[in-house]
Each structure stands twice: as structure tokens, then as C-alpha cells.
Amino acid sequence: MLIIDSKDCENIDKALKKYKKKFEKSKTLLQLRSRQNFTKPSIKRREERLKAIYKQQIASGKID
């Protein structure tokens, strides 16, 4: 549950903007979407490995 501290003189739009930013940082929506489908642990590891390889290639300059 997200709690936003708002002052009495604060505009509702600013409070809503704070809430949205806090909601994004908590990554709640990403968790909900990932829980909709079950992915096997082997597939998760494969994806992580491919991401790491891709990042290394970018860092070394092989991919632009």
C-alpha cells in the first residue's frame, strides 16, 4: 500500500503526480504482469544470460 504525505495547502494534482511516481518506482505493475504467466526458471536464466551478453557487447563496442 502506497502512502503519500500531502500538506494541506498542496494541490491535488501534485499529490497525484507524487503517487504515480511512487507507484512506478515500486514496480507493482511489472510484478502483476509477470505473475500472469508462469515462466520456467530455465527460461528466466536464459533471458538473464542473453541480457548480460548483450550488455557486454554494447560495452565493448561491438553493437552500436
TrEMBL record:
It holds the Pfam family Ribosomal_S21. Keywords: Ribonucleoprotein, Ribosomal protein. It comes from the Bacteria. GO terms for cellular component: ribonucleoprotein complex; ribosome. One of its GO terms (biological process) is translation. One of its GO terms (molecular function) is structural constituent of ribosome. Belongs to the bacterial ribosomal protein bS21 family. HAMAP family: Ribosomal_bS21. This is Small ribosomal subunit protein bS21. The gene is rpsU.
